[in-house]
Specification:
- About 65% of the residues lie in helices and about 0% in strands.
- It has about 180 residues and is mainly α.
- It folds into 3 domains: about 1-60, no CATH class; about 60-90, no CATH class; about 95-180, no CATH class.
- Helix 4 crosses helix 5.
């Protein structure tokens, strides 16, 4: 229980005798202990088979599943479907602010994904480009590559390769930056 008034009106200051904050904390702990104990007691009274299934069912619940269930309810219940997707004049109370906002976020998803991936790959890309551009230029200048500027351009990003999340090449070569 949170009480702000008595603490502000108390002239003795915080921590003095009769401080309402200490009493409120004690009440919260008592409530928390009571509900935890009653929850454990009710869980212990369930059959053993149900006790084993509850953590398994909890592991199965994930954001895509919850979103799919919510979408099914909104799409299949006519009243909710009308509230979310009908025009405002036709009773779509969520269309003006919620549905249009979610649609705008969905439209930005691809662009945001490009920024995230680009920021993750930027250090490797910069390093490899600083090596590849002079190398391709040197090989072209010495006439090892022939006279095809498009092939030269295609050869510049080749050292970047395909990276996994831990910045390791698919082929197994690990790039490490820094001291070491």
């Amino acid at each position: 229980m949170f009480a702000l008034g008595p603490k502000l009106m108390d002239k003795a200051g915080p921590g003095a005798a009769g401080d309402g904050d200490t009493e409120a904390r004690g009440d919260q702990e008592t409530d928390r202990e009571y509900f935890a104990a009653s929850g454990h007691k009710q869980f212990a009274e369930l059959p053993k088979r149900v006790q084993n299934m509850i953590p398994f069912a909890g592991d199965m619940v994930n954001p895509p599943l919850v979103g799919s269930i919510m979408a099914a309810f909104i799409g299949l219940i006519p009243l909710l479907h009308k509230a979310f997707f009908a025009d405002t004049e036709d009773g779509g109370i969520f269309r003006a602010w919620l549905t249009s906002s979610v649609s705008n976020i969905g439209d930005l998803f691809t662009a945001l994904q490009m920024f995230v991936v680009g920021s993750h790959c930027a250090p490797v890309l910069i390093l490899s480009m600083n090596v590849a551009i002079p190398t391709v230029y040197y090989l072209a200048k010495k006439k090892f590559l022939g006279h095809d500027p498009m092939a030269w351009l295609d050869m510049i990003p080749m050292p970047v390769g395909q990276f996994r999340n831990d910045d390791e090449f698919i082929g197994g070569t690990k790039w490490e930056f820094g001291e070491g």
